[in-house]
Amino acid sequence: MIRSVPRSAWFDRIYLAYLVLFFIYLAMPLTVTAVFAFNDASFPSLPWKGFTLDWFFADGSNGRTGLFHDDGLLSALWVSVVIAFWVTLLCVCLGCMNAILFERLEFRGKEFLYLVMLLPLVIPGVILGVSILVFYSGMANSVSQQWGIELDMFRPGMPLVVAGQVAFITTLCTLVIAARLRKFDRQLEEAALNLGATPVVAWFTVTLPWLLPSIFGAAAMAFLMSFENFNTTVMLTGSDTPLTVALFNRLREGSTPVLNAVALLLMVGSALLAVLAMGRSSARKEG
Amino acid sequence: MRSSASKLSLCLLMTPFVLWIVLLVLLPHLQMLRVSFHVRESWDTVTLGLEQYQNFFSESYYWRTFVRTGVMSLFTTFLTLVIAFPIAWYIARLARGRAKGFLFLACLIPFWASELVRTYGWMILLRESGLFSTWLQALGLADGPVEMLYNDAAVIIGLVYNGLLFMVVPLVTTLDGMDKNLVEAGYDLGGNHWTVLREIIVPWAMPGVVSGCIVVFMLTLGSYLTPILMGGKDSAWFTEQIFTQFITRFNWEQGAALGVLLLVLSSVIVWLGLRVTGQNLRKVMG
Questions:
Q1: Which residues of B touch A260 (CB under 8 A)?
Q2: Three-state secondary structure call for residue B39
Q3: Could you give all domains of chain A from N- to C-terminal order, each with its CATH number?
Q4: Chain B contact for A21 (CB, 8 A cutoff)
Q5: pLDDT at residue A220 greater than cutoff 80
Q6: Which end of chain A, N or C, is more open, meaning fewer C-beta atoms within 10 Å of its C-beta?
Q7: Distance between alpha carbon B166 and the CA centroid of its chain, in Å?
Q8: What is the pLDDT of residues A39-91, one digit of tens each?
Q9: Residue B203 preceded by cis peptide, ω within 30
Q10: Confidence band for A3, pLDDT divided at 50, 70 and 90
Q11: Rounded distance, CA A109 to CA A94, Å?
């Protein structure tokens, strides 16, 4: 608190009220979504009709199908997990290599290429999706017309969704890992080299352990961003719809508490992942 | 020996970078630009032409939505900045120890849920059968159900909510690094609240402000779920039209042209923002 600055009591009170209102605003939509996942009514609205777990576990016998018996949602969830897995793997690898490229090596045009690397951040997600659709799907179309070869990989579907998400999540991973690499004391690596380690050994025993917290952080972020992405995904998805797109289609048909149950599950999942990533990185920092 | 090894490592590290940026970003966008100049004559012949862009300017629906999307995105960005600044100031300068970390985390929590979940939450609150409507009736402030969803105000509430995190985090980061003596010196030299804010705090926070504004603006301009789910019949968003052209009408040429226009709009506004405030992309994003 800056004590020497003149401030009046009522200003403090208004400020405090503003803070409280702000955090209510932040918490309200999610709290409401979570709470109505347990309401014993077929539409997520008031009045409160009592507590039930039907929206998670009902098997369809009483006219309600809970989340864990809803094959459509479960398969969409699995599609999302598979996509997120590949995106995370690719983005973290690319991010690591990009970070070393821009933090450690000197080459001509580095400034310019760095700006190019940042480009995906200033391209709207819908446009990224559309451009990849036009390029790859268009290519598949012309190849099929001219030579009669079907390149199903380049048709809308899982590979294209992965490509679209990797396009921009890689930039974020690069930034996270590069920020950590910048703080690395290069003398540690030189010491390893002086003590007879080869550059590869020095990298795996000295530099990589230093980077690990940021790699875990980047991986958690990549997984979440991939899992939650809608704008890029919706343009590129084929018959196997990921969870966000499936939820969106359900939502347009009308809302049921099953959607709230899925939403709650997603929130808990993301929270666990975030806590895990943060716990990991703080443990590293202390140890 | 040394230089050939470093050349090798440069090649090894440059290859994945080039593959990623060329195959997933540059080539697709160039192709999109090319397709936007295609004019379809029959099902398998195309010529080059400006027809898609002419359509955009002659159909008032297209460019009206375009302008509307741009203006509303700018307004949303400004509103997000105004709402987030006092919060960031409190977290960075006034809160202490545990409270600081706790409040910062509280700002992040909503973003562990996806945009779809957040929008759904707002729908439950704002719609005719929603909580606000029920509460207003229970308090006797309204006679019947009140529809608060499906209008521009609802869209802006949702969009601001989506952008807040990306504004608060860079603001807290820059404000955190400010020397408090600067503010005290400002008052000692006879400044009042307003001059201190304008002459000292805002210039110091500028990199954070610009980076927050760019990200929020990009997110808002490119958002699809919030306007489509919370907006009414008249609140069309430009991304929606791109989606319609591609997915519903299979008119890729028109869709590509609209995509290029959106990309140009966002690039121009981001560039202008950087120019006016004297920042550069590397400093702001990197």
A1: 120
A2: strand
A3: 78-248+256-286 (1.10.3720.10)
A4: no
A5: yes
A6: C
A7: 9
A8: 777 776 666 777 777 677 767 666 667 677 777 788 888 999 999 999 999 99
A9: no
A10: very low
A11: 20
Q: Please tell me the distance from the alpha carbon of residue A224 to that of residue A220, in angstroms, as a whole number.
A: 6
Question: What's residue B9's pLDDT?
Answer: 80
Contact B242, B259 (CB under 8 A): yes
What 8-state DSSP symbol labels residue A121?
G
Distance CA B228, CA B243 (A): 11
Tell me the pLDDT band of B286, cut-offs 50, 70 and 90.
low
Instruction: Give the type of residue at B127.
Output: R
Residue A143 predicted with pLDDT over 70: yes
Residue A4 confidence (pLDDT) above 50 = no
What was the pLDDT predicted at A252?
81
* pLDDT at residue A44 in the model: 67
Residue of A nearest to B121 (CA): A29
Q: Where are any strands of DSSP class E within chain A?
A: none
pLDDT above 50 for B285: yes
A147 touching B (Cβ < 8 Å): no
DSSP letters spanning B144-185: S----SSSHHHHHHHHHHHHHHHHHHHHHHHHHTS-HHHHHH
- Tokens read off for A68: 């864990």
List CB contacts of A79: < 8 A, sequence separation 6 or more: A158, A240, A241, A242, A243
> pLDDT tens-digit profile of B250-277?
888 888 888 999 999 988 888 888 888 7
Q: Are A165 and A83 in contact (CB under 8 A)?
A: yes
* A45 CB within 8 Å of a chain B CB: yes
Question: From the CB of residue A57, how many other CB atoms can be counted at a distance below 10 Å?
Answer: 13
Query: DSSP assignment, residue B234?
Result: T
Residues of A whose CB is below 8 A from B108: 274
Alpha helix positions (H), chain B: 2-20, 27-36, 51-58, 60-89, 97-108, 115-126, 131-138, 152-176, 180-188, 193-196, 202-221, 225-230, 238-243, 252-277, 281-285
User: Which residues of chain A neighbour B65 with C-beta distances below 8 Å?
Assistant: none
CB atoms within 10 A of CB B38: 18
How does pLDDT run across A191-203, given as a tens digit for each residue? 888 888 887 888 8
How close, in Å, is residue B84 to chain A by CA atoms?
Answer: 9
Contact at 8 Å (CB) between A231 and A129?
A: yes
Q: Token digits for A257?
A: 């508490």
- The domain defined by B67-285 folds into MetI-like fold (1.10.3720)
Query: Which tokens is B95 given?
Result: 């809160």
* Tokens 């945009």, located at residue: B115
Q: For chain B, give every domain's residue range.
A: 67-285
In whole angstroms, what is the distance from residue A104 CA to residue A88 CA?
23
Q: Residues 6 or more apart from B145 whose CB is under 8 A from it?
A: B128, B129, B133, B137
Chain A contact probe: residue of B18, B120, B125, B211 with most A CBs at under 10 A? B120
- Compute the distance between CA of residue A144 and CA of residue A151 in angstroms, rounded to an integer: 7
Q: What CA–CA distance (Å, rounded) separates A182 from A222? A: 21
